[in-house]
Design goal:
Blueprint lengths: L8 E5 L5 H17 L2 E6 L4 H4 L7 H26 L6 E5 L5 H9 L4 E5 L15 H9 L3 E4 L11 E6 L3 H16 L2 E7 L14 H7 L5 E5 L6 H12 L3 E5 L2 E4 L2 E4 L1 H9 L4 E4 L1
Parallel strand pairs: 1-2, 1-4, 2-3, 4-5, 6-7, 6-9, 7-8, 9-12
Antiparallel strand pairs: 5-12, 10-11
Helix pairs in contact: 1-3, 4-5, 8-9
Length: about 280
C-alpha cells in the first residue's frame, strides 16, 4: 500500500498584505510544489465598516473604510502576483464577495485537500477584519484539515522534524492521513502518546499506527507515558521544544453551536500558544 501525493487544491487564506500573509502564501506554495498540487488563494476578510461597527449614517467614515479595504485587497493581490509569478505550478486567486467571510471561506474549503491559515496574533491596525476565532471556525465547520501557522513566524518549509500527538480517535487519524506527504519527507518523526496501548481485544494481526506509518514509508520514534496529564497542551508545547520539532500533527477536538466555539483544553491551548506550525483535523 502506498499513499499517492495530494493532487487536488491547496487553499491559502490571505487576510491582509502583511509579512504573515506572505509567509502563508509561501508555505502553501511550497507544499503545492512538493506534492504536485494546485494552489488556490482566497482573499477572505470582513469589511472594515462591519468590523469597526460604523453606524450606517456615518457616510464619510464608511467611504474611507471601503477605500482602505480596496487598497488592502489590491496590495495583497500584487503580493500574490509577485510571489507566484515564477512558481511553475497552477495558482489561482479569488475573493469573497459576500459580507459573511466565514460562510464563503468554509464553502470553498469543502473542495480543498489542505487549508493554510494563520494563528491570530498581535493585532494589526486592520486585523480586526479577520476575526480571532477564524482558525477554529474553519476547522470545526468545514471538516477539512488545516495547517495553522504561528503568528511569530516559521520556516517556509516546515516538517523537517515532525511530532504527532496521537490518540486512537477519528480526529487524530484524519490529521495523520492529511500529514502523510509531509511526514514522508521528514528526517525524524516522533509519536507522543499517553495511556494504555491501543485496543487489544482483536485476535491476530491488529492494525495500529506504527504499521500504518511504516506502510507509507514513515519510520517513527515512540514516546509513551503512563497517563494523559491534565495540562496536555502545555506538555505538548514543552515536548516539541525538547525534540526540536518544527511541525505538530494532532486532532482538533471540540464542537460548534451557532457561533459558540467549544474547544477541548489541549486544542485551545495549542491554538492560543503554538510556536510551530500545527496540522490539525476535526
Amino acid at each position: 500500500t502506498r499513499y499517492i501525493g495530494v493532487t487536488g487544491v491547496q487553499t491559502c487564506a490571505l487576510p491582509i498584505s502583511t509579512p504573515a500573509a506572505r509567509q502563508r502564501l509561501q508555505v502553501a506554495l511550497g507544499l503545492a510544489q512538493q506534492q504536485g498540487a494546485r494552489l488556490s488563494a482566497l482573499y477572505a476578510t470582513m469589511p472594515l465598516f462591519l468590523a469597526a461597527s460604523v453606524p450606517p449614517d456615518a457616510a464619510a467614515a464608511m467611504a474611507m473604510l471601503v477605500e482602505v479595504d480596496q487598497e488592502q485587497r489590491a496590495a495583497t493581490r500584487n503580493m500574490f502576483d509577485e510571489v507566484v509569478r515564477t512558481c511553475g505550478i497552477e495558482a489561482t486567486w479569488s475573493d469573497t464577495l459576500d459580507l459573511s467571510m466565514f460562510r464563503s471561506f468554509v464553502h470553498q474549503a469543502l473542495y480543498a485537500d489542505l487549508l493554510v491559515v494563520g494563528q491570530p496574533g498581535e493585532r494589526h491596525d486592520l486585523a480586526a477584519s479577520v476575526p480571532a476565532d477564524f482558525p477554529e471556525y474553519v476547522l470545526l465547520t468545514s471538516g477539512r484539515p488545516a495547517l495553522v501557522l504561528p503568528h511569530i513566524g516559521c520556516s517556509d518549509t516546515p516538517g523537517t522534524i515532525a511530532a504527532i500527538a496521537w490518540k486512537p480517535t477519528r480526529e487524530a487519524a484524519r490529521a495523520v492521513t492529511a500529514a502523510l506527504p509531509m511526514l514522508q519527507r521528514a528526517s525524524q518523526v516522533h509519536v507522543l502518546c499517553w495511556g494504555d496501548p491501543e485496543d487489544t481485544t482483536v485476535a491476530g494481526e491488529r492494525l495500529e499506527l506504527g504499521h500504518y506509518l511504516a506502510l507509507h514509508g514513515v519510520q517513527a520514534t515512540w514516546h509513551r507515558d503512563a497517563s494523559e496529564p491534565e495540562a496536555l497542551g502545555e506538555i505538548l508545547l514543552s515536548r516539541i521544544s525538547d525534540l526540536g520539532a518544527d511541525l505538530l500533527v494532532m486532532g482538533c477536538y471540540g464542537h460548534s453551536r451557532a457561533r459558540e466555539w467549544i474547544l477541548g483544553g489541549a486544542s485551545r491551548t495549542i491554538l492560543a500558544s503554538m510556536t510551530v506550525p500545527v496540522l490539525m483535523a476535526h
